[in-house]
Predict the 3D structure of the following.
Amino acid sequence: MSQSNEVIRLPDLKPYLLLQNGNYLYKIPFREGWAVLKVYYGSRSWFSCLAKSFENVVLAGQTSYLPRTRRRVEAECMAIWRKHGFRVFGTYPEVRVEAPGCPEGGYMLFEYVEAPKLGDWMKDESRSVEERLAVYRAWLLEWSRRHDIAVREREPRLAHENGDGKHVMLLPGGEFLWFDFEMTFRSRRRVAEHVSHEIIQYLWFLWKSVPPGIRERLIPETVRHYPQKERLGRAYEYFWRHPNLLHRFGRACERAFKAKARSPTSKYSVARLLREELERAKA
Ligand SMILES: Nc1ncnc2c1ncn2[C@@H]1O[C@H](COP(=O)(O)OP(=O)(O)O)[C@@H](O)[C@H]1O
Ligand SMILES: [Mg+2]
């Protein structure tokens, strides 16, 4: 347990609110600077939290949506990512925070980091396309290294469930910092599928958010520089030809009935662009 007895007491957290999304995030004064306090109690009511937990645990065989579970899973993921050499936020488990609305066991304290997110950096037209793509290539290598380990070790917690350009920062030395790991239970047996999903999610997010000029380059660069081409092909297949027929049927229904799924900026469309580029590269 904690060695230090450092305690931060704050009579009111409201003045420090950074944002309230799924959780409450506060930027609080800490030591000589700042820290981020994440309180795993979002805007859901207790009833809706329990209802969602019921759905997760009983219907989907996942972990519960209860705040403590989300906190535990986030901490587990961070430890695993760190063990494999991926940069995540530092945490201060030895520090206790006492504040209204910040229950024991329901929060985590992170180092405060100010750096651009990958998605914003890729959009920044004050930098040349080549400069941005050079960073993107470095990112692809680190991305694929993690996928390799996840598949080899059958470790679903190494797939980034919230993976998109908003959840990676680019640190000044060129290092990538990954964050937001709350996730529901994922099966070890389905780790290849989880990785595939992450691949399409990242590509979809980046592809639709970057401006023309770099957008056309994104998928070709991915195919050229992501080392495991077969894994990219598999990512397409999970969306369009899922090995489980029931899932395949579900996805076909989604495309048939949901206009959004058919839009040119849908995950399906991006998966298809990826597949077309893989074919071109083979030819
Ligand atoms: N340690 C941190 N340092 C700086 N900013 C942070 C930190 N943690 C979170 N943020 C900011 O808060 C946002 C939401 O954080 P995230 O972990 O994604 O929370 P949520 O689980 O609610 O989505 C991030 O996109 C980032 O801008
Ligand atoms: Mg988030």
About this structure: The chain is about 50% helix and 10% strand. The domain at 7-111 is CATH 3.30.200 (Phosphorylase Kinase; domain 1). The longest strand covers residues 24-30. The chain has two domains: 7-111, 118-282.
